[in-house]
Design brief:
214 residues, alpha+beta, GIY-YIG endonuclease, three-stranded antiparallel beta sheet
C-alpha cells in the first residue's frame, strides 16, 4: 500500500521528492524535448562541481515531468533493488538517505535532435570522468559524436510517427520483386504508432522498410 512507502512516512524525504517533481513540471513544455541528468547527491561532483552531486545518468524525453515522477515512484515503491539500471540507480541513492536530484542539460525541438543531444552529452560527460550507467551501445562505448544522419537506427525505429514527422524523418518501403521503392505517408497512421510496427508489417508481405533522414 502506498501509505507504507518512505514517501509517506518520512516528511523530509517527501519534501525533497516533491521539490524534484515541481522543478520537472516547471520546465516541461509542449514541443520541447529535454536532455536531463540524474545526480547522486551522496557523491560530491569532483569533476564539474555541480551542487546536485555527481552525474550518474543522462536521458532524454519530451515529457520531463512525467519521466521524473514515473521513475522516482517506481524506484520508491520497490521492495528490493530493481534490475533496471536506472531504477536501480535511483533505489541505490534513496537507500543511502536523500532523494536523487535531476537537472536539465539541454532543450531541443524534435525527437531526433534529442537522441543526438543525449548521445553527445553522454560522450562528453563520460570523457570528463563521470561514472554514467547508460546502457545504449552508442552511449556505453561510443567516443565519436553523432549528428542526425548517424543516430543508431535501432533507436529511430522506436520513435512514433508523430515524432518522426516532427523530426523530418521518413520511411520508404521496397518491393523485392519490382525493386520499386515507395515513400510511406506517415500522416495516415495514428500519432502514437511506432516506426518498427510499420517496418514489421511490411516484412510480413516480403517488403523491406528503411528510415530516410531528410
Amino acid at each position: 500500500m502506498k501509505g507504507f512507502t518512505r514517501y509517506y512516512r518520512d516528511p523530509d524525504f517527501k519534501l525533497q521528492v516533491d521539490e524534484q517533481f515541481a522543478l520537472a513540471r516547471e520546465v516541461t513544455r509542449p514541443g520541447v524535448w529535454i536532455t536531463y541528468a540524474i545526480h547522486d547527491p551522496t557523491e560530491v561532483d569532483s569533476v564539474g562541481g555541480r551542487a546536485q552531486g555527481s552525474i550518474r545518468y543522462v536521458g532524454q524525453t519530451k515529457n520531463f515531468g512525467n519521466r521524473v515522477k514515473k521513475r522516482m515512484s517506481t524506484a520508491g515503491r520497490a521492495v528490493g533493488r530493481p534490475t533496471d539500471n536506472i531504477d536501480g540507480l535511483l533505489w541505490d541513492v534513496m537507500s543511502r538517505g536523500p532523494a536523487p536530484r535531476w537537472s536539465v542539460l539541454e532543450e531541443v525541438g524534435s525527437a531526433i535532435e534529442s537522441l543526438v543531444s543525449e548521445t553527445n552529452w553522454v560522450i562528453d560527460l563520460r570523457a570528463q570522468g563521470y561514472p554514467l550507467v547508460n546502457q545504449w551501445s552508442e552511449n556505453k562505448h561510443g567516443t565519436q559524436k553523432v549528428s542526425r544522419y548517424n543516430v543508431d537506427p535501432k533507436r529511430l525505429w522506436q520513435i512514433t510517427t508523430e515524432d518522426a514527422i516532427g523530426s523530418n524523418v521518413g520511411l520508404s518501403v521496397r518491393d523485392p520483386v519490382s525493386g520499386q521503392e515507395v515513400h510511406v505517408d506517415l500522416s495516415i497512421y495514428p500519432r502514437g504508432t511506432r516506426l518498427y510496427k510499420i517496418r514489421d508489417h511490411a516484412r510480413q508481405s516480403g517488403r523491406r522498410a528503411r528510415i530516410v533522414i531528410n
